[in-house]
Amino acid sequence: MSGSFAVFMRELKLAWSGGGGAALPVGFFAAAASMTPFAVGSDTIALQTAGPGVIWIALALSSLLPMERLFQADLEDGTLDAYASSGVGMEGIALAKTLAHWIATGIPLALVSPILWIMLQGAPEASGLVAGAALVGSLAFFFFGSVGAALAAGMRRGGLLIALVTLPLYVPTMIFGAATLDAAASGGDWLGPLMLTGSAALFGIATSPFGAAMALRTAID
Amino acid sequence: MAVMSFFANPHRFMAASKWPAWGFTALGVALIAFGVWRGLLAPEDHQQDERARMMFVHVPAMWLSLFAYAFMVGASLVSFVWRHAIADVAAKSAAPIGAVFTAIGLMTGSIWGYTTWGTWWEWGDARLVSVLVLFFIYLGYIAVWQAMETPQKAARAASILCLVGAVNLPIIHFSVEWFAVLHQQSTFMTTDDRATAEFKIPMYISALGYLALFGGLTLMNMRAEIMRTRAEMLFQRRQAAD
Q: For A177, which of A145, A168, B85, B158 is 20 to 30 Å away at the CA?
């Protein structure tokens, strides 16, 4: 346990000290969501209708961006081999690394989402709920993505493969998260969909470290 | 268990599978032809008339799309636990065939939907959307096999993905159903449950044919895969000798 915690702290420090680890996904998130009015039109009603879905798709794609390097860099420079021989279970390492990357990138994404929400003519009162839903949703996206990231770690151009493998796993989170935002926009019952989003995140946290660990053990063989 | 270790040897597998591969394929084609022919002669269904005859092609394809995935999950499990060489080949060979059955099911379902519901695609129908996700999972699985450098690593990675997909499929199906309930505008009726015996028997014959065809094509694909590996080994040996 303390070994996993040490990995977690190391990853967190690396993500922060690297300078702008989160800037790229956040920039992509903002730019992708800002494309909506150009495609849908500047009409307020149209933007309010499309907004929740667009924000959620942009969040899912932005969460995929850091996945390509999640395990690849450590595999290339031998860090993963050192981790493997350290006695810490690979499951703990997958969990620690994914969680650290979510704190470094996922939380900034969630913090930016209310700004995009208001830009797409969403009700400002719902900002807190949007940020909360994005927080829970990005947690699910990161953990489901970690399996794809681990599978593609040994490949030179694994980015597209991660997307193809991971997007089907994103379907439940996509449905529940977008339904939460829809309910927030229409003033409906948002607690049910939010709790289902949370259960998707919990399921991802509980299962995906095992899948990622199996794939990582194959990659360092 | 005894059968499993017996076929772990590719030579034994090649010797035993030559005739079954052709036999099952021929049997499958014959049964499908017979089932569809019987289906076309069956009396008209009073609800959907001629359009319901799509079921002889569509319903077995949908069953097989799930059966093929279940087969791959079983083979992946065997491959993962015992590192069984033929199980790897079986899972790899079944994937494109399962994907094609899924595509046939999606396309015939879409045509059937257009003639009965008046729309090519209906997001409000949970089964349609779940099958689409299954199709993407098939594509991801095939892509993993092609992207890995060594066959051993590809086999491990693909079996992990197959098992991850199996764990997630029920959850995806449940969430899509929930989504459909939220967004459904009208309730669709299908004749599957109310089909009469004249319709059911040709459909089961056709389904048996699909199953035999799946078995035959998978065996052929496995044989081709083993021959490809042998050819590569032969090629490398020749180069080493030169």
A: B158
With CB atoms and an 8 Å threshold, state whether B160 touches A179.
no
Neighbours of B192 (CB within 10 A): 14
Among candidate residues B158, B130, B164, the one with its CA nearest the CA of residue B142:
B158
Q: Are B68 and B214 in contact (CB under 8 A)?
A: yes
Measured between alpha carbons, how far is B168 from B120 in angstroms, rounded to an integer? 27
Residue B153: per-residue pLDDT:
84
Q: Evaluate the CA torsion angle B230, B232, B235, B237 in order and state its sign.
A: negative
- Tell me if chain B has a CB within 8 Å of the CB of A176: yes
Give per-residue pLDDT as tens, B82-100: 888 888 899 999 999 999 9
Site of tokens 């095939």: B142
Task: Dig out the tokens for B126 from the structure.
Answer: 């949970």
Smallest Cα–Cα separation from B42: which of B52, B33, B30?
B52
Residue B141: other Cβ atoms inside 10 A: 27
Which residue type sits at A124?
P
User: In the block, which residue shows the tokens 């992946």?
Assistant: B76
Q: Give me the interface pTM, i.e. the ipTM.
A: 0.83
Q: Which of the 8 DSSP states describes residue B43?
A: P
Instruction: Express each pLDDT in A23-79 by its tens digit.
Output: 888 999 999 998 888 888 888 888 888 888 899 999 999 999 888 888 888 888 888
The one-letter amino acid code at B163 reads L
Tokens coding A3: 């070994």
